[in-house]
DNA sequence: GGCAATATGTCAACAAAGCTGACGTATTTT
DNA sequence: AAAATACGTCAGCTTTGTTGACATATTGCC
């Protein structure tokens, strides 16, 4: 298709640049999740448990449907993981006051503790990468990732504030 | 732990900044993979098939063991997916000339075609994000993701060239 | 030449985490 | 009173990872 042999071919550079981006995401995400995955395996949990614990910790008293909007999985898939976390005492459900159909979720002390341990390795990994890359690079990292994600979730990152 | 109420607390800002990074990665990766996943489901394949097709396309005549080093999965997991791709005519295996124990992998025309279709959506997504964010942001994006991944794979991104 | 190491493949069993479809209950909204 | 919503559950299926054991072909070394 594109004649790769032509020396200073902008199309080739673009193709190579875009493929590198794809691979950067793959390798970075693979390593980003690997440490927490290993810790979770010890506890008999998986990455899905971490995601639930993380976002419940991040948004205390979140409703089940809002959590589903974040995770973009089916309620049946969430249910299996969430039931285990409730059963094992990491999360408690509490009936909503305004809308009593809701089962609002929050971490127990035990849940907060495991969240801290699990996320700590990821935080340190990011912190090191941020420190080594510098503030300008961090701004670029944010801008590109915001551009990659679908618009609806971008607003979660407005002004360093929670939605 | 850290007193969140203190107004200009650098530790709080740092904590918020790091959590946003974690979430940026989660949301961006979730959406980055979703389109190709949907196309794959049509063909009866999954994300694992895409990864194999992608990296075989990227590194023609790659050995099975080198592919395993990239994917970091077990040979049994790879074998299942790879066998299907060979059976269905997307990949051919060819005995190595220097080391005849090797089964070097390359895409067939059919494999090249599906790789192009699958990766096209991802390339366009990245291209748009790159274009909107600008060259400096792209440099920052690369620097931070390189810092997040484990060192051994960083050399794959030296000088826009393949290893 | 012989033997250990390597590259690859395969069988079997299992687990995590996603999916669809169907159905039920409590509560709110219209 | 009826419809819509929030949530939960049962049942079955798929993809993709895991461990462990074992087999074959080939290479490298002493």
From TrEMBL, chains A, B:
SUPFAM superfamilies tied to this protein: Winged helix' DNA-binding domain
Record carries keyword Disulfide bond: no
Gene Ontology MF terms: DNA binding; DNA-binding transcription factor activity
A Pfam family: MarR_2
Sorted UniProt keywords: DNA-binding, Transcription, Transcription regulation
Domain HTH marR-type, first and last residues per copy: 15-150
Keyword Transcription regulation: yes
Stretches that traverse the bilayer: none
InterPro entries attached to this UniProt entry: HTH_MarR-typ, Tscrpt_reg_MarR-type_CS, WH-like_DNA-bd_sf, WH_DNA-bd_sf
Protein name stated in the entry: MarR family transcriptional regulator
Organism: Roseospira marina
